[in-house]
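[Amino acid chain]
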Amino acid sequence: MALLQPILNIAEILHKKGVNHALISPGSRNAPLTIALARHPGIQAKSVSDERSAAFIALGMSQNLKEPVVICCTSGSAAYNYAPAVAEAFFQEIPLIVLTADRPKEWIHQHDGQTIYQTDIFGKHVKQSFEIGADYSHPDSVWQIERSVNHALNLAMTEPKGPVHINIPLREPFYPLENEEVRFSPRARDIKRIKPVFQLSKEDWTEIIEKVIDSSRILIAVGQEELNSALSEVLAKIQEEFNIPVLGEAISNVGLDSISKHDLFLGGDDSLLKPDLLITIGKSFISKSFKTFLRKYKAEEHWHLQYGDHLIDTFQSLTQIIPVSPLDFFSKLFADIDYDNFRNGDMEERDPEFKNIWFERELKARKYVESFFQADFKTESFNEFLVIKQFMEGLPDNSQLHLANSLSVRYANYIGVEAKKKIEVFANRGTSGIDGCVSTAVGAAISTKKPVFLLVGDVAFFYDRNALWNRYLPENLRIVLLNNHGGGIFRVIDGPSKLQELEDYFETVQSYNAEKTCQDADIEYVKVNNNEGLMAKLSLFAENSGKPKLLEVDTDSLVNTEIFKQFKAGFKAV
């Protein structure tokens, strides 16, 4: 075991650099890494057999904990199963630490088991890949291992954060001798990297302030973003005192009374809504209508706040990248403009006309949404859109909501989340795949005491039900399963909805339900398939019973489609 001491020291370095959690998938080649992570007193290790699920669980944990989480697997195809979560982490800027065991290079493509080309296996979807040598006896090998692990961790936590990959070839023997003591060396090096401070020059900042003061039509748009109470407060002040509208979506977590129903009211003559200056923060936007609007009515200037060098021009109008945090930027912006107004005695408000135009349409859309759901639904028109409205209104304060991709996140975006409830919303919108939505929510629930609610469709749920195949499901997990027995989104998209192949090749028609899955996973199961008793079952679902719960909403895809089309068409007629 002495020759594997540098492998043991990997766990020590990881812990010194802030790693407290590891998700390990069982295997033989990664046994030395498993032993190192499982026996380290400062690392909480969990065993999850399905590598794809394990990686998404780690992603959900890292989002919540705001710290790097390790995933570790054996050699061969196991590593490839990490790929969907690694890609999601890359585009969401989440610091996953990917440790893959490997065979020594001379055994690749020699008809030996569990051997593939693992070097750089994740391509551009990691910030950087590292590989250590297979022999650890020489002092230079020890130096290279420590240097590589330090480099990887420092890079993962440098803005913009993201996943890193360390490939680790290992020779036999993999296991310690009987009664052999496993020790972690306190001398394992921790090479620190001081966090950089991003500041603009005085000249650049003066130019920004002058442009904001001179612009009468400014729009602040927030893409996917973490919940940040301090940022919400300053954006609320800017919107209220400077009459600059703030636009956000369900996944933006803006935490204020902002423009949020734009996906409903955009799409007609939107010329009056065109901003001269667009300031964007965060990552992706859900609304295709919003992206289409800004690509058609391009802002004269578009500033995007981001770290990193990648040029992201979602709206085809980018004029300036500003590498500072949104909180620092808007806090200083508010303070400096407020002071400038006081110093110059110019206490007149910015003309509220532009803000008023946006909010007039916003309020019209809000009233329409409320009136639509106040209609007297009959039992036979039971539908998932109504259920989601009731469910989201009943979410407890300070809880978490995870939205699966496809229709779930779009339904929720139309309905919205009450800002005063301080509900943080998560969704895998980095790649917008359905493959790890359940696992990500499980990871979140494992890493917080808050109630964690997942809204998920049937295809996404059954695709990822291995998320429930582990020993760690916590009692704060609540899953709302929208089971319309197929991919309902394809009935509301113009293209596939008109094809003869719709049912056989797009919808994924299936007759499954989740009752037996819940029995296997020891999850409390509740089912609803009509309007009668819906509220009672939703209330029962929210209560704490000491076990995770799943509420299955059984609906008809044809009815759902008709209701949703009525919803969209009805607003145009208002």
In short: The chain is about 40% helix and 15% strand. The first strand starts at residue 21 and ends at 24.
